[in-house]
Every structure is written in structure tokens, then in C-alpha cells.
Amino acid sequence: MDYLLKGIYKKEVMYRERCAREERKRQVMENDKLQCGECGFLSNTVGKAEEHAKDYCHTNFILSDDFFIDQHCCSCPTHCNSPMALELHKKKTGHTEYEDTEAKRDRLVQEYLAKIEAAMKQRDEQLRIALEKEVRSQTRLLNKKLNMRSCLDSIKQSLKFDEQQQRALKTLVTIVKNVAEHPAEEKFLKIRISTIEKRLGYVQDGFKFLELCKFEKVEGGMFLVLPSYEVEEELLKAANDELNRALSVMEE
Question: Is residue 235 one of the residues assigned to a domain?
Fold first, then answer.
């Protein structure tokens, strides 16, 4: 008999608890809201309250007639959706600056646009620097080509016979070609002047042409040396073009 009474009492208790839960749900749906007593989070549905409890392990919820607000903390990612949540967050963190969603969105958009503008300015500055460098490089190369052409014209004027002129120009072609094809081999980067001065017709403009290719006189003027780090493919190509131009003019 006692066993039956206990079973009936237990069912009665469970029924009353279920009715109480249903009543709370009904009240929330009609007027009141559920509010977390630990952080102030405000919910207008039981589902949202249960989701919050699951995410943050907060279980202390109360019925509340608090109202919703929309405030994002400017110092951390926290979003406060009720006055209670805002006050609790202020006390806990000491943060004092807050903004609503629209203001936050506008601020983030402005920050994003500012970053884009800064990146574009930086890119434009980099392009400007690169263009200026390219212009300086091409101008320097053009000036050297003109000086090379002047040297070759002087060589042809200084040497009376075509055979002498061709030998001088072909000597320069060989030197330039060897360096261009073997820029790391020392035997092509160091030339004894006495071995080429006769082939160049003892004309100083021949040596000047090589100096325009960045050869330097060393060891008391006994050698011409082109440091490997000074080898410029574009400059050597320009020198070769000028030499071929000069030779083709002679052959016409």
C-alpha cells in the first residue's frame, strides 16, 4: 500500500513540475523573458536560453521584464543585449566604451576602407619608385649606348684601312661575347692590355668602349678587369648590338 502511495505521489510531483514548466514557457512567450542571473543575457524564448546555458554552462535563469538593448563592447568582442548584461560587463572588465550594431558596422566599414586606401597608396608609391628606377636605368643604358657608338665611330675614323677597323671591332665583339656567354670565368673577365692593344690599333677609344662595359684598368694599367658582380646582361647586349651595327655599316 505504501508503495502504491509513493508511486502516486511521485507521479503527482512530476505532473506539477511539468505543468510549472509549461506555465513558465507560456509566460515567457506572452510577456516575460528569461534572463541569465550570471551574465545578464536576455532571451525571449526558452530555446535561446537553453542554447546559452549549453554554450556558457550558466544555469541560473530567472523570469525578467528587462528590455533588449544592442551594445557591443569596443574593447572586446562581448555583445550586451540587456541593461543588466551591460552593467555586469562594466563591473567585471572596467570597459566603458560601447556601440550599437549599426555604429560598429559603420566603424568597421570605415576602418576597412581606410586600410584599402592605405594599401593603394603604398602600392602606388611602390609603382612610382619602380617606374623611376626603370626610367633611370633605361636612361643610363641609352647614354652608354650613345657613348659606345661615339667610341666606335672614333675607332673607324682613327684607323685608315677597313681591315684594321674590322679587326678592332671583331676583337671587341669577341671580348663582349665571351663575357656574355661565360660571365663567371675569370679568364674572360681579366684581359692583359698588351695582348689586345695591337688588334685595337692602339686606339684609346677601344679601351674606352670596354670601360663603358664596366671593365677597369688595374695593376698599373697592365690589365682590364670586369668584376663578376658588375656583369650586366642588358649592358653587354647593348654593346653587342652597337658592334654589330657598326660592322654591318662597314659591309654595306
Answer: yes
Q: Cα–Cα–Cα angle for 33, 38, 56, nearest 5°?
A: 90
Domain count, the chain: 2
Buried b (16+ CB within 10 A) or exposed e, 23-47: eeeeebeeebbbbbeebbbbbeeee
Q: In this predicted model, which residue has the larger pLDDT, 228 or 14?
A: 228
C-alpha cell at 14: 512530476
Q: Distances in Å between the alpha carbon of 151 and those of 71, 120, 170, 202?
A: 79, 46, 14, 13
pLDDT digits over 179-192, tens only?
A: 999 988 888 999 99
In a domain, 111, yes or no: no
- Same domain, residue pair 139 and 189: yes
pLDDT exceeds 60 at position 1: no
Q: What angle do CA 21, 25, 28 make, to 5 degrees?
A: 140
Q: Indicate whether 173 and 54 sit together in one domain.
A: no
- Do 90 and 81 form a contact (C-beta atoms < 8 A)? no
DSSP annotation of 74 reads: S
Please state, for a pLDDT cut of 70, what percent of the chain lies above it. 90
Asked if residue 113 belongs to a domain, the reply is: no
Domain that holds residue 91: 2-99
Judge if 81 and 137 occupy the same domain.
Answer: no
Mean pLDDT throughout 141-149?
A: 91
CATH code, domain with 238 = 1.20.58.2190
Quick count: other Cβ atoms within 10 Å of Cβ 246?
22
* Digit-coded pLDDT (tens) for 90-136: 999 999 999 888 888 888 889 888 998 898 999 989 999 998 999 89
Amino acid at 224: L
